[in-house]
Amino acid sequence: MANISMIGAGSWGIALAVVLESNGHEVTIWSAIEQEIAMLSKEHEHKAKLPGVRLSKRIGLTIELEEAIRGRDLLVMAVPSVYVRSTAKQMQPYVADGQLIVNVAKGIEEGSLMTLTDMISEEIPQAEVAALSGPSHAEEVGRGLPTTCVAGAKKKEVAELIQNVFMNDVFRVYTSPDLLGIELGGALKNVIALAAGMADGLGYGDNTKAALITRGITEIARLALAMGAKFETISGLTGIGDLIVTCASKHSRNRRAGMLIGQGLSMEEAMEEVQMVVEGVYSAKAAQALSEKYQVSMPIIGQVNQVLFAGKPVKEAVHELMLRDKKAEHDELWED
């Protein structure tokens, strides 16, 4: 049995706390919001973020960050990507040498273009930092529906430790050393999901969705490989798997925000309507910057940025994607 703290009390943090507690671990949830901890203590359920998923009374709750960190075997970083750096700064004084932090958020920092595990390592250099990612909506994980994820770490024994802690008969965990590929897949698929949602909002069909998913994974793979990630990762659970579920699921906040934009709302109005952090909006500019830095063609990412931040009409963006220059799907298949 491990002593684990969940840093963050959003839907994903709560769902994973339920998994870990059911595996027999001692679990504590931390939130910086005193009212949130008070509500969870009283209701044992987050009715706004994860209705219907009950928290065991054995799960501890605290607003004291030092209490949540000191002496814990493992810390799970479950705050939205935009708060990862600021939270890591607050955590740093209390983290012991070699203490394990597992990041479960998805995103790329806009200014530095760093992955979240790299950002955490920069702020908490004494920690051992890893990631857990994959096609895994909190609404289904919290209800115990079969789900698969990947534990990514530079050291095999660390990835296997995470695998052993999280895995059970409905939550299967694989291991991988490709932290970069895992995090790029998790962050960039949110931007493609915005595009898929926009197409849904316009009333387009399954043909359009299939095209966006397929060409989207091609864009993600181009960038990931240029940055040094592995093709196997992008073709696996944290690449194509996560992209499919985020583009197609009713639970996807990125798809929902995209749908609202496709129906005529502005980016700001859509985010207010969703009432949860829409990670793709925060990763879109970083994705565009990375495509320019590594000189990789990412037309879908580019059009999403135009819609979000330059006021381009969604129909015009789709029209431009369809009217791009004629191309082969894979140039290398043609013999000279």
How would you describe the overall organization of this protein?
With 336 residues, the chain is an alpha/beta fold. It has 16 helices and eight strands. The chain has an eight-stranded mixed β-sheet, sandwiched between helices. α7 (156-166) links the parallel β7 and β8. It starts with a strand and ends in a 14-residue tail after the last helix.
Question: Strands, helices and their partners?
Answer:
Blueprint: E1 3-7, H1 11-22, E2 26-30, H2 34-43, E3 60-62, H3 65-69, E4 74-77, H4 84-91, E5 100-103, H5 116-123, E6 128-133, H6 138-141, E7 147-152, H7 156-166, E8 171-176, H8 179-201, H9 206-227, H10 231-234, H11 237-248, H12 253-262, H13 267-274, H14 279-293, H15 299-310, H16 314-322
Parallel strand pairs: 1-2, 1-4, 2-3, 4-5, 5-6, 7-8
Antiparallel strand pairs: 6-7
Helix pairs in contact: 4-5, 8-9, 8-11, 8-12, 8-14, 9-11, 12-13, 14-15, 15-16
